[in-house]
Amino acid sequence: MSENAFFAAFFFPAAAAVLVFFMKYVSAVLQARVRLGQDEAYREIAKNAAKAQSESAAMLSSYGSTLAEIQSRLAVIEKILKDVE
Predict the structure, then answer these.
(1) Exposure string (b/e) for 23-39, b if CB count within 10 Å is 16 or more?
(2) Is the dihedral of CA 34, 36, 39, 44 positive or negative?
(3) How high is the pLDDT of residue 83?
(4) For the chain, what is the mean pLDDT?
(5) How many whole angstroms separate alpha carbon 37 and alpha carbon 34?
(6) Could you please report the per-residue DSSP string of 7-57?
(7) How far apart are alpha carbons 44 and 32 in whole angstroms?
(8) Distance, CA of 25 to CA of 18 (rounded, Å)
(9) Which sign, positive or negative, has the C-alpha torsion 43, 48, 51, 52?
(10) What's the whole-model pTM score?
(11) 65 by DSSP, 3-state: which?
(12) Whole-angstrom distance, CA of residue 29 vs CA of residue 35
């Protein structure tokens, strides 16, 4: 009986220590996977934001050229109206 108690006294704490380190390792792996997923999501958001920003810049430049064209036409119409007076 004393041999069983001796083995149990060493086996259970050693098994508990191994189990604790294994759980710590598994926890670190799971946290790394979650962090990687979050990083990928942030990259996707950043890529979409950059795409939207470039599209907005293109639309603004298009609006600028259209506005310049309207202003030049308005200047011509004003000139014609002044000549008619």
Answers:
(1) eeeeeeeeeeeeeeeee
(2) negative
(3) 86
(4) 90
(5) 5
(6) HHHHHHHHHHHHHHHHHHHHHHHHHHHHHHHHHHHHHHHHHHHHHHHHHHH
(7) 18
(8) 11
(9) negative
(10) 0.53
(11) helix
(12) 10
